[in-house]
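FAQ

Q: What does a record look like?
A: Structure on top, sequence underneath. For example:
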């Protein structure tokens, strides 16, 4: 089963302003990612090819990065997701499109988890992200995203607790 999912928004600003938002992904003052509503995106180093991280239980690596234009992340989790998600910036001096695309080949548990859970949460997160971009770029959001009843239900479910890591064994003398 294959998935291609695209979210995009056009802004009445130059490419360099939108590019700055994408280039600041996973920084301390990330102006794009909707951290207050969703797990923050975190990487093990600044945005660059080879950086590893994710948001919440979603894990990925930076596979490609062209500053100001494009960043692609390849999935390592959840199980059953083979593919990538990416941000691209397209435009000129007067208007710019920020696009997010996810392309997946689903297998095993991914065939169930995408349509039942991840698709809905992904779509809500991306619309929040585009609202945040709009707020930062033009000062307000014309039509703020609203969560469906199903998304509100999914977000109300208890989250699994992180398993504590076993303590390292003391060195033997």
């Amino acid at each position: 089963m294959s998935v291609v999912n695209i979210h995009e928004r056009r802004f009445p600003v130059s490419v360099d302003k939108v590019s700055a938002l994408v280039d600041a992904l996973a920084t301390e003052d990330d102006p794009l990612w909707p951290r207050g509503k969703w797990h923050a995106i975190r990487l093990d180093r600044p945005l660059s090819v080879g950086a590893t991280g994710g948001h919440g239980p979603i894990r990925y690596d930076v596979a490609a990065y062209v500053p100001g234009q494009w960043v692609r992340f390849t999935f390592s989790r959840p199980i059953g997701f083979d593919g990538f998600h990416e941000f691209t910036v397209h435009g000129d001096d007067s208007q710019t499109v920020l696009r997010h695309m996810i392309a997946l080949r689903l297998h095993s548990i991914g065939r169930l988890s995408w349509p039942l859970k991840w698709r809905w949460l992904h779509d809500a997160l991306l619309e929040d992200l585009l609202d945040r971009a709009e707020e930062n770029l033009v000062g307000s959001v014309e039509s703020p995203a609203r969560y469906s009843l199903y998304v509100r239900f999914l977000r109300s479910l208890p989250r699994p607790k992180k398993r504590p890591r076993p303590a390292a064994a003391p060195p033997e003398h």
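Q: Is there anything notable about this one?
A: Residues 110-138 form the longest helix (29 residues).
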